[in-house]
Amino acid sequence: MASNQNLHNIIFLLIFSCLLTLFAEARDTLKAGDSLNSSSHLVSSKGAFTLGFFHPCTNTNNSYLGIWFTNDRKKRVWVGNRNASVVNTSAVLTLETTGSLKIMSQGGDAVTLSPSQVTNDNSTISATLLDSGNFVLQELNSNGTLKRLLWQSFDKPTDALLPGMKLGVNHKNRSTWSLTSWLDNVIPAPGPFSLEWDHKGHQMIIRRHGVEFWTSGVLKGDTFEFITDESKSNYNFSVVSNEDEEYLSYTNIKQGEQSAWFLSFGGKLLSFDGSYVAETENCNGYNTDGGCKRWLPRCRHHDDMFDKRSGYFIHEPDHTSLDNNTSHTLNDCKVACWNQCGCDAYTSLYDNQTGCKFWFDKGEFFQDLSGVIPPIYVLIPKPSQNYTKKPTWIGFVIGGTTALLVIFLCILYYLSRRRNVILEGENDATIDDGLLELVNSDRFTSAHGSQNDTKQGHDLRVFNYNFIMAATNCFSLENKLGEGGFGLVYKGKIPKGQEIAVKRLSRNSGQGISEFKNELILISELQHMNLVRLLGCCIHGEERMLIYEYMPNKSLDCFLFDSTKSKMLDWPKRFSIIEGIAQGLLYLHKYSRLRVIHRDLKASNVLLDENMNPKISDFGMARIFQQNELEANTKRVVGTYGYMSPEYAMEGIFSVKSDVYSFGVLMLEIVSGRKNNSFSHTEHSVNLVGYAWELWKEGATLNLMDPALTDSCFEDQMLQCIHIEKQLKHIYLTKNQKLTRYMGCPFPILLHDEDSLNDK
Q1: Residue at a domain's end among 489, 518, 549
Q2: Taking the CA of residue 699 as centre, how many other CA atoms within 13 Å lie in the half-sphere pointing to its CB?
Q3: pLDDT tens digits, one per residue of 432-453
Q4: Where does the record place it (predicted)?
Q5: Are 739 and 605 contained in the same domain?
Q6: What is the dihedral of CA 565, 568, 572, 578, to 10 degrees?
Q7: Confidence at 43, pLDDT banded by 50, 70, 90
Q8: Residue 647 pLDDT > 50, yes or no?
Q9: Are residues 586 and 705 in the same domain?
Q10: Which residues span the domain enclosing 374?
C-alpha cells in the first residue's frame, strides 16, 4: 500500500511539474529586459497564435522570427527578419529597457524591429502577442493602462492578411500596408508578387514585378466582382478613408473560425483552408477573365490570339528556343511568347506540361491531320482570317508531312548527339536546353577552331534546385563565403564529396539574365588554368545561380588588404599571382577561341586555389570581340571605378587596352598592399595610381612597397613591375600608339623579354 501511495505521489508530481512548465512557457508578453531564445515561445492569451523562431528548410540552422497559428505551425502569418536569417541555436529576441526590440545571434548583425523609444520613469514597456495575431510593443502607464502604441507587426505585413489588418496607405508617415510573397516555399525573402489596395480606384491589385497582374474589381456594396463566390459569402469588407489613412480590411462572417489570406510565391491568393480567394492561376498577361490584367506589347494587336494547331514549321530547329525551367507552366510559356515580339508560337517542352519551346521568324506552317504530332500554339490575328482548311491541300500535306517528319527526327537525333550537358540532381529530365542552345549557337561556333584549343568545351551541368539546396544546407549562414553587388556566394558539397561554390545572384543587383547567360556561356567556352572553372548553373523561378569549383582561399583581396593575412603573401607568391593573372589575360585576349574583354578585373575577382594559384572570375560584364575588332563603344559603362581606363570611364570606349589598364592598377595593389579606391596620403590628394606616379618621378619608387615585404632580394623584380605599370599609364596619358606593340606581347617583363619594353 505504501509503495502504491508513493507511486501515485510521483505521478502527481510529474503531472504537476509538466503543467507548471506549460504554464511558464505559455506566456504572451515580454517585459523590458526580457529575452526569447530559439527554444522559447510566446503564446497569445487564448492560444490562437504562437511567436518564436522557425527554420523553413530542414537540416539547416537558418532561423527566422515568425508568428504562426498554434494548431498549424506551417501557416505562418508574419516573419520579422525575412531579409536576414540568423543562426538558430544562438537566435534571441530581446526587449531592451530603452524600448528597442531586436533579433540577435552570435556572430551576426542585429535586426532591429523597433528602435529605442523615449520613455519616462513612470511608464513601462512591454511586447505582447495578441489573439488577433498582432505582436504589439506598448508603453504603459504606472497603473497598467495603455499610454501609447510604439510598434506593431500589423504595420509590417509579409505575405499574410489577417482579419483586422490593413491594406492601404498611411498618409501620416507616408508608408503603405501591402503583402509581398515569399521568394520560394522555403525562402521568406520578398518574392515577385504583391497585394495592394488602390485607394483611388477602390480595388485590390496583385502585381508581379510591379506590373498589374490581377484586380478585384471595384468594391460595390459589400463585395468585389472578381473574388470567388465562396469568398463573397465568407467575408465582410470595410474601407476607411480620411486625411490620415486610406485602407481596406476584412472580417470573417463566421465568428470563431480561423481566417487568413496568403499570397503564395506563385501569385495565388489563398484562404486559410487552401481555397482560392481569387482565381489568378489563369492570369498570364493575355487572358482578361476574372480580373486578370492584360499588358499589350506594341508589336501585338488587341485581336491577336494563339490558336492551338497540330503541325510544324519548316525552319526547325534554326528558329526555335528552349526553356527547360520546370517551374514554368503552359501559361508561363504563353506570357513569355506574348511579350517577345519575335515569338510566333509556343508549346510545353516536357510531357508533364512544364518547360517551354518557342518558335521565332516562322516560315510556312504545315498542319498534321493525323494528330500524331503534338499541338503547338500559333500566334495569328484571327483564325478565320489567317487559316482555312482547303481540301486541295490534304494530299500535299499528308505526303509532305511524312517526308518532313523523317527529316525533323534526324535533326533531333543529330542535336541530341551534340549535347555535352550532364544533369546533376534528382530529375534526370531537367536539362537546360535554352542555355545549351546559346552555347552551341552559330554566333559562337564561328569563333571556334583556334589551334591553341585542343578541348572543344567542357561538360556544362544544370543542377536541380533541390540538389543545390541540399548541397548548401539550404543556404545556411555557416556556408556563406562572401557577398558582393551581384549577390551572395555559398559553399556546398555534392554527394560525390566534391566541394562547390554557388554564386546566388541578387534580384536587386545590376547583373540581370543577360549578364547571367553571358557569364555562363563565356566560362563554359574558355579553358585555362588561370580562369575559374564553371561547373554549371541552376535556374529556378526567380533564382539564378552559377556553380563553380570551390576556391579554399577565397579571393585575392581577402589576403592583400588584410594586415594579418598579407604577411602570408611573400614576394615570390605575389609575383606568381601577377604572372598567373597576366597569363589568364593573355589567353582571353589572344589565344582563346573567343576573344574576350573582361571589363571588371580587380582583386576581388581574382580567386585563389589551395596552392595560391590565381583564377580570374566574374565574367558577367565581359564582351566578346571578333578577331579583327580593335575597340567598341558602349553607353552603359560597367565595372569598378578606379580600375577603368580613362577613355572607357569617360567615353565608353573599351578594348584590350582597358583590361591592361586594370591589370596595371591591380599590379600596383599587389606590390603595395594598398587598395586604389580607398588610398589616401597626407601630402598627396591622389589615389594609389597618382601616388605611384609621383614617387616614380621623384625616384622613390620603393617607398610604394608593402611594409610586409621585408626581403630586399627581389627589389629588382618589384621595380620592373612598377616600371611596366607606369609606362602603360604614361602611354594612356600621351595617347602613344606604341601600346599596340605591347599588346602583341603583353606584360613583357613577365615573359622575360625586357628589350621590348625598354625600346621606346
Answers
A1: 549
A2: 0
A3: 344 444 433 333 333 233 333 3
A4: Cell membrane
A5: yes
A6: -20
A7: very high
A8: yes
A9: yes
A10: 308-418
Give CA separation, 9 vs 2, 4, 15, 16, 306, in Å.
11, 9, 10, 10, 78
Residues identified as active-site: 600
pLDDT exceeds cutoff 90 at 3: no
Pairing, β 261-263 against β 146-152 = unpaired
The chain-wide mean pLDDT, for the chain, equals 76
In whole angstroms, what is the distance from residue 397 CA to residue 395 CA?
5
Q: How far is CA 730 from CA 124, 585, 642, 736, in A?
A: 68, 21, 16, 8
Adjacent-strand bridge partners of 36: 93
Name the residue type at position 628.
Answer: N
In sequence order, the 6+-apart residues with CB closer than 8 A to the CB of 32 are 95, 96, 97, 99, 124, 125, 126
All three cell numbers of 113: 524591429
Residues 408 and 431 in one domain: no
Question: Of 326, 418, 336, 409, whose CA–CA distance to 377 is shortest?
Answer: 336
pLDDT at 759: 40
What are 146's strand-pairing partners? Answer: 140
Question: Length of the chain, please?
Answer: 760
d(CA 576, CA 143): 74
Q: Within this chain, do residues 610 and 582 fall inside the same structural domain, yes or no?
A: yes
Q: How many CB atoms lie within 10 A of CB 215?
A: 22
In tens, the pLDDT along 53-98 reads 998 876 677 889 999 999 999 999 999 999 888 877 788 999 998 8
pLDDT band at 299 (very low <50, low <70, confident <90, very high): confident
| pLDDT tens, residue by residue, 655-677 | 788 888 889 889 888 988 888 87
Final residue before a domain boundary, out of 418, 446, 468: 418
Quick one: 313 and 462 in the same domain?
Answer: no
503 annotated as ligand-binding: yes
Clarify whether residues 592 and 734 are in a common domain: yes
Give yes or no: residues 390 and 452 share one domain: no
